[in-house]
Each structure stands twice: as C-alpha cells, then as structure tokens.
Write a structure and sequence with these properties.
- Helices cover 78% and strands 0% of the residues.
- The protein is an all-alpha fold.
Length: 100
C-alpha cells in the first residue's frame, strides 16, 4: 500500500507545476490547463485523505471540484474563443480590456 505522504508529495508537485505555469505562461489555453492541473492536485489530496481517514466526505468534495472545473472550462473556453475571434491572439497580456 502506498503511504499517504507519497500522495501528498505528488499533489504538491502537481500543484506547484500548475502555479508556475499560471505565473510564467501568457497563453490562455496553457493557463487553463495549469488551473486544471491545480484543481486535480487538490482532488488527489482530497481523495488521499478520504481514503486515509476512511470517510467519504473528501470524495464528495471531489465531485464538487470536478463540477466547478467543468463549468470553468465551459465558460473559459467560450471566452477564449470570443477573444481569439476578435483579437486573433491568445496572449492574455493583449486582452487587457473587458470590452472586445
């Protein structure tokens, strides 16, 4: 059986990669992928603690996080498509105005 600390270490690594990607990258698609990576790192932590403690509460929170991630992806991709159609770029530095 894999110890809890390994799951937490993997989750920390995934979350760190996501944070670094959000801070460094300027492409909107890559930013979304990094945000999804951070959400999945949190999901891994919740499932690991749920399994370790023998409680299903963490797994229920994972469903909530997955729902939020799906909604975020749907709305975010719509915004990205709109941005690309009007500005023809995915660079978030060039999308500094809310009015397209």
């Amino acid at each position: 059986m894999v110890p809890l600390s390994w799951y937490l270490a993997l989750s920390a690594v995934l979350f760190t990669i996501g944070v670094v990607g959000v801070v460094i990258q300027r492409n909107a698609i890559v930013l979304f992928m990094c945000i999804e990576l951070m959400l999945n790192a949190v999901n891994l932590t919740l499932v690991a603690f749920s399994r370790f403690l023998g409680d299903v509460t963490g797994q229920l929170f994972v469903f909530i996080v997955m729902t939020v991630a799906a909604a975020e992806a749907a709305v975010g991709l719509a915004v990205i498509i709109s941005l690309f159609r009007t500005r023809e770029t995915l660079n978030v530095d060039e999308a500094d105005l809310l009015k397209l």
